[in-house]
Amino acid sequence: MGTERTDALRARNDQCIINTYGTRNLALTRGEGVRVWDADGKEYLDFFAGIAVCNLGHAHPTVTEAIREQAGKLLHVSNLYYIEPQIQLAEMLCANCFADRWFFCNSGAEANEAAIKLARRYWAQKGTPKPGIVTARESFHGRTLAAITATGQPKYHEGFAPMVPGFTYVPYNDVAALEAAVTPETGAVLLEPIQGEGGVRVPHASYLKQVRALCDAKKILLILDEVQTGLGRTGTLFAHQDYGMTPDIMTLAKGLGNGVPIGAMGCTEEAASGFGPGSHAATFGGNPLSCAAAVATLEAILAPNFIESAAAVGEYFVDGLKDLAKDNDDIVEVRGKGLMIGVEFKETVMPLVGKLIASGVICGPAGPNVLRFVPPLIITNDQVDRVLSILAACLRETAR
């Protein structure tokens, strides 16, 4: 198969697009389920899902029909008016988690920005300003200025100083360090239930419960960033549900619209009191189109046995990767939950990512040494077997 169309698209791209992504020489033009095709007709298994976005795969018929139907009725009216699909989506989310109230926006970064603003304004409204927020090292919370400040990775801060004041960083999975960092100025703790970009790092079983207890004892808000872990990705609808605790504020995006941009921040009734009319907004947030897509997506994810089946395939995948690791000294660890899986190597994984893509498997890194698989939740054991076979072949080729 030639690369004529892909090469032409790359040439055009290089003339007009700012190079912020280090784009690979790959142009995907069509998808169906777990499969995608490039501009030159080559087929791939997509085990990256647009970075944990297309949880239902590509061109899902129910989501596609919901988008088509809503596009024929109403795309945008602004949040100055009641929006029925937005209300329906909020009702569904309220019925399936701790949150009493929702704010909708366009991305995970915006959702985290809203959470940060809510936490600060909540305490200001109480008359006891506590602007400090503690986050974890190796975290990732988005690309707005406050979100990258919250991100505990200095590489994302380079060139953007001065950063937003008030943030403190502690080691992930270390409750003692977190407690030591809390001061009278601390108003919130912001964590990922499982660190994604930081290397698919899963905390010990009691960590989040201990963090919840600490926040209660210190009377501070707990924010969980479920942008990547939410919507069935880790084996429960939201990752924190597997740890037997709830936050005060939670952020979502990625898988919520199955590819249609939408972010959300949910919170308790008490935390919601920090916002009032005029305190925060998003012009396109929660518009009829994105919410109609999200309603259809959430209905599919909530279908009987959907999440449980995805979790079972995830367990099968992890077992296969661990078997592969037994015969490969370069693999340090296989870890993850559900279908959020990381394989840590001794060396950088970018050459391996390139080999896998060339062999028809789309995946990506999570940090320099971790190969990340976040496929659609509809993958099958047969597709996992195919990916494991291709990965084994790529590892043998690398070893030569």
Q: What is the fold's blueprint, element by element?
A:
Layout: H1 4-16, E1 28-32, E2 35-38, E3 43-46, H2 49-52, H3 61-71, H4 84-95, E4 101-105, H5 108-126, E5 132-136, H6 145-150, E6 167-170, H7 175-181, E7 186-191, H8 207-218, E8 221-225, E9 249-252, E10 263-267, H9 269-272, H10 288-301, H11 306-326, E11 331-337, E12 340-345, H12 350-358, E13 361-362, E14 364-365, E15 370-373, H13 381-399
Parallel strand pairs: 3-13, 5-6, 5-7, 7-8, 8-9
Antiparallel strand pairs: 1-2, 2-3, 4-10, 9-10, 11-12, 12-15, 14-15
Question: What can you tell me about this protein's structure?
Answer:
This protein has 400 residues and is α/β, with parallel strands linked by helices. The chain folds into two domains: 62-301, 3-Layer(aba) Sandwich (Aspartate Aminotransferase, domain 2); 306-374, Alpha-Beta Complex (Aspartate Aminotransferase, domain 1), CATH 3.90.1150.10. Helices cover 38% and strands 17% of the residues. The protein contains 13 helices and 15 strands. The chain has helices at residues 4-16, 49-52, 61-71, 84-95, 108-126, 145-150, 175-181, 207-218, 269-272, 288-301, 306-326, 350-358, 381-399; strands at 28-32, 35-38, 43-46, 101-105, 132-136, 167-170, 186-191, 221-225, 249-252, 263-267, 331-337, 340-345, 361-362, 364-365, 370-373. Strand 11 (331-337) and strand 12 form a beta hairpin. The radius of gyration is 21 Å and the shape is globular. The mean pLDDT is 97.
